[in-house]
Amino acid sequence: MPTMRAQFTNRIRIVAIVVLALGALLLFRLYTLQIVHGAEFREKGEGQYAIQSTNHFDRGSIFFTARDGSLISAATLDTGFTLAIVPREIKNAAEVYTTLSQYIEIESKDFFDKASKKDDPYEELLRRVPLSIGYKIIDVDIEGVHLYRERWRLYPGNETAAQTVGFMGYGTGDMLVGQYGLERSYDDVLTKPNTGLYVNFFADIFANIRSTLFDDNNQPGANVVTSIEPTTQDFLEDVLLSYQDDWHAREVGAIVLNPRTGAIIALASLPTFDPNDVTHADPQAFSNPLVESVYEFGSIVKPLTMAAGIDAGVVTPETTYNDKGFATYDGSRISNYDGKGRGVVSMQEVLNQSLNTGVAFVVEQLGTDVFRSYFEALGIPNETGIDLPNEAEPIVSNFESPRTIEYVTASFGQGIAVTPVAMARSLATLANHGIVPAPHVATKLQYPGGLDKKLGWTPEKRAFSEESTETVTRMLVEVVDSALRGGTVKVPELSIAAKTGTAQIARPDARGYYEDRYLHSFFGYFPAYDAQFLIFLYAVDPQGARYASETWTEPFMETVRFLTTYYDVEPDRAPTN
Known about the structure:
alpha+beta, Penicillin-binding protein 2a (Domain 2), seven-stranded mixed beta sheet, 20 strands, 37% helix
């Protein structure tokens, strides 16, 4: 008797387990139908009222991340109709034209020309007809008029971060693919597989379970969430527009990033374009010079040279040298920006007065091999690996030369050329306590059903000691407090580390540099000793001013004030009377 009872109990347990398992599977199936594939079924249901397009276009979205954490659409899909006619079905073209004109604007000659082609089975009148208008036309039920469901890529921000977001175009086989920006670099991830709504029940279940439990790299069909903050992005673009009004540069760009993480909060350049209407845009504006072009940035490289000297223990802020205004290496002469000597000056004054001979002195103390090793540790000879397409390789052949002069010119930012994002990365090392950050735009991927994948980046590496970067930061704070515009832009309650750069522009068709064309750059970070933001600004060939301190100081300080207010940055020092 106990044996039969035990057998009965076991059977009950087995039945209960089977029922629970089936219930779990059914619940999971309901989840996939309503949540994962819900949008697709809604679209199919709506398609009962119009002819479905045979070219089904589906793609994940790209999002900006607002300060409060909410997601703002940067690239998404919009839905509407393509309006077409079948000429042989139209009995009274004038009546059809009059009826359609109540809902949409159609050029009369174009309509009647198409309506007269009685042997043509299809004539397209208008694309991207809004849903509300399309449904009204459907309700009228005009013989010979047909509406086809259509989806297209929409960029709600228009020009906002256009070069970063990119746009879509036709690739091989008439397929829409990402052409520039994030649309291109994450094309495989954004593209949703056309597997249909009705897939094998158990295959669908186990595919979802697998994607949840295992990391299969970046699967298709995801949304891309970025670190771009839309209000900050719009502000930065306005700063550049204002700069252009004042200085008429050939090109201008800016980056705001978090030096602790490498996450880019805003990046912009001019000229730009509207990705919703690329047919009327200048194709030269499609590429992103912040990633795809290299420049000699000049004196903003000097803090990196100084950091190398301090880190190696060959100089301190108090170390002095005799500045004659010039120096000769390998038969070539370098000089200060004004050609004047200052006599015996300290390393602090080298940064305060941006003395070329001073950083040349640091290279002498380091030796060329050690100097090169520090710049290699900063990643200057390498691409950053940022998640934007077509990153340009740096031009750093100076570091392969046996001549000291090549290293000396590199020490003050001439003779080596890097991208703006690469320069910002190296300078962010000073703000990040000596660790080289990995600049990036995307932060995570969102998959259907609420599954997220956080993106990882190149492992951080140390270029300088924390003590060395703190020393250089203190020196750069002194530059702002005392030297920049004579100390008049100092913010008493906030420590700001910054440096300007004015570089001659190399001639493209000959050796040497233009005598009257300059690249102006400016970088800074704050609060200096626990930096939340790094700002990097540059302009190619601005007109009407020789030095970067003349053109960039006000835009830089305006950006500091905005970020301080918008992000509620706490003061880090007591104001002095």
